[in-house]
Predict the 3D structure of the following.
Amino acid sequence: MDLLTELTILVLAAFVGFEVISKVPNTLHTPLMSATNAIHGIVLLGGLLLIGEASGFLDELLLVIAIAFGTINVVGGFLVTDRMLEMFKRRD
Amino acid sequence: MYTASFLSDPDFIRVLYIFAFGCFIYGLHLLNHPRSARRGNIVAAVGMAIAVVATLLYDFVGDYLLIVLGIGLGTAVGVPAARSVKMTAMPQMVALFNGVGGGAVALISFVEYREALEHTGGNPVLEQLIPILFAGIVGSISFWGSNIAFGKLQEILPGRPIQLPGQKFINLGLLATAVGCAIAIAAGTESQGLFLVILVSAAVLGNMFVLPIGGADMPVVISLLNAFTGLSAAAAGMALDNVALIVAGMLVGASGSILTKQMAEAMNRSIANIFAGGFGGVSVTPGADGDGEQKPVRSTDAADVAIQLAYASKVVVAPGYGMAVAQAQHTVRELADELEKRGIRVDFAIHPVAGRMPGHMNVLLAEADVPYDHLKEMDEINPEFAQTDVALVIGANDVTNPAARENEGSPIYGMPILDVDKAAQVIVLKRSMNTGFAGIDNPLFYNENTALLFGDAKESVAAVLSAVKEL
């Protein structure tokens, strides 16, 4: 993909990010942070993309750590957000 | 391993990525309301699952044993941590999750650089190299900064600002080193050693940059580091030519930046000011012992408070982190229930920076089964204080300090506060006459309509609760 296409996507994603988030009420800021935090665990994909062609023990070791880190970020992040949101209730 | 050809077609994978973004954006949209928020989180998680599966379909993605090992290890650590963490410890958990994300970015950028040197026999093209260097620097700062934030929130490290003489120059020097080495690499120097220097100086910078920040400023720091990790993930995506990383990383980068800005505004401080360690200077030796004795305060007891509450028609509770520290939130909710049974309207006034991360107080109260429609944001509740009979301040201090409104000389002048002093009666539950996090005296305590109930917040509330029940 050429650089300009990537930059276009980057800028548009930034604006979508601003738009979607600015409407979230203070009440939900902690779960919001924790959910977006989980989303950046997507770096795990970077580890997946590189590990097949990695050669040598050091690279493989670093990538396994990176994948593990990314997974902690994703799995832990979504789970903990779910735990928080489960508690938000109206009066019955 | 054989996979049907269309499955590993890069175009098919990119179509799946489009579904994944759709899920992320729609999921974040659902987070706008407490009713749909839980569904939103699940939708975003489904998006993530789609993105991971799609990536595994690429022909060149292999070494499944190592992938399973990495994902297995991550799950084994992440799931129990997320299941067992206490809600009061949520900020440090988020800091930790954020840190490992940043660490993953830094590691990936380093491996990507090594691979480029080995396989293509030299530095990659500039449009790939710049994002790699950016991801390395920011990922490393984020990893170490988040770990320090975790250490401070978990009280492994002292919460008070830690500052070295000439700290700003040290930080600038570290940043200059990292950027200088990055420019050297971008200009053509091929050196893994130099890349390591970048990672290490960024790591030290990450430490130095969070250490001087006091505990009260942590909401802003966590939010900023969250944005950093998102941006570095987007950069890694540009280096790897992967749209999923670019979009998801940037969504987080943008949302994190907005939150950081909102937090800083809620404290009336510029982000630069926070990182210069502004409150640190003020809080070293507060005149806690002198001030309290000179000016008279009115102290009260549980029975009196119970009578005031029971004969009120509108009560507003202003909780602070002190309430959570005392684990008083469940007792407070029982008291609110008891008062509501008597037809008294009880609302909770939540300052945007109450707690240790944005919105933390809401989570703590939700955990104690306070319905979210009773949690009022500052702008919504402030006009209502004039019609409030009793404002009950529990473990909050600086966010109720009228000096922020009236005293131009006060370090917190201009910070938006909860106008509890406008209520007919104010009852402040306090452990002692010590000043708050910022070390600033609070004139609210000396007002005529203010009474102080001294003692542990949980015990005090419990005493008030039983006195109300006896009425």
